[in-house]
Amino acid sequence: MFIGYLANLQEELSLYPKGIQAGLKFLLETDLSSLAPGRHEIDGMKVYASVAEYETETKEKRRLEAHRKYADIQCVCSGAEIIGAGPLSGAGAVDEDRLQEKDVIFYKSIAQETELLLTAGMFAVLFPWDAHRPNCNPGANSSKVRKIVVKVAVDTLDRF
Fold first, then answer.
1. For the CA atoms of 70, 28, 15, 130, what is the dihedral angle to 10 degrees?
2. Which of 122, 127, 129 is nearest to 147 (CA)?
3. Torsion angle, alpha carbons of 40, 45, 46, 48, to 10
4. What is the reported pTM?
5. What are the pLDDT digits (tens) for 37-72?
6. Hey, what domains does the chain have and what are their CATH numbers?
């Protein structure tokens, strides 16, 4: 897992795995404010983006999730949210397994969860070994958020 700023991508882009670079280049080179909600293909099923607009919710209403086939690049375009994140190895009992249909599995708890505050222009990259709880309130009140989640197939990631 790592977080960053779109404003720094020109200096950092070459440091990331190629599949992640493709998703980050899309975020860097696209007018994100004009993208319609829904799915946008970048490289077929290997790299694609989903645009969503929503109100954040309390942490208690959001479920902890993980994926197997894809890494997420979660980029906040407007608003702010907390994403809880922690090592998948510390996840507790499975709450719901939808890996076959939707590449998502939900967990009831996690031993260690760090809160990442993402504001407009920030992104977080979450790998299959990172459990995460997106769309949480950034404070006492909810926030209206516009976010793009780029899904990057794990087989596009360079491994050392």
1. -30
2. 122
3. 10
4. 0.94
5. 999 999 999 999 999 999 999 999 999 999 999 999
6. 2-156 (2.60.120.370)
